[in-house]
Amino acid sequence: MNEKISLLIYYDYENMLEILSGEETKKLLLAMIQYDKHGILPDFDGQLKMAFAAIKINLDRDKDKWIKTRNQKIEAGRKGGNAKSKIERSQAPLSTA
């Protein structure tokens, strides 16, 4: 789980998307993916610029949350691995050399 493989699309976007044409909606959705995956900001104007600005807030918040969760899971895995290693060492037979 080192790379983010998805993004959320909220129901709140429905009203924005209904206002846009099919081609504009396609451009907006592709821009969302490009931004979330690669950090590339689109060069929009008008309605698309306003729609993306509203959506970008959620994309940034969701990515920050994902990174925080990923880091917590990595740390928990380390702690679990360390604890397991300590148990295995304590249960290892003593050598009689």
Verbal overview:
This protein has 97 residues and is mostly helical. It has one domain (13-91). The chain is 72% helix and 0% strand. The chain is built from three helices and no strands. It has helices at 13-19, 22-38, 46-91. Helix 2 (22-38) runs parallel beside helix 3 (46-91). The radius of gyration is 23 Å and the shape is rod-shaped. It starts with 12 loop residues before the first helix and ends in a 6-residue tail after the last helix.
Rounded mean pLDDT is 89
Helical fraction:
over 70%
What about the largest sheet? none
What's the SSE pattern?
A: HHH
Supply database-style keywords.
single chain; 97 residues; mainly alpha; 3 helices; 72% helix
Write the layout of secondary structure elements.
Elements: H1 13-19, H2 22-38, H3 46-91
Helix pairs in contact: 2-3
Summarize this structure briefly.
This protein has 97 residues and is mainly alpha-helical.
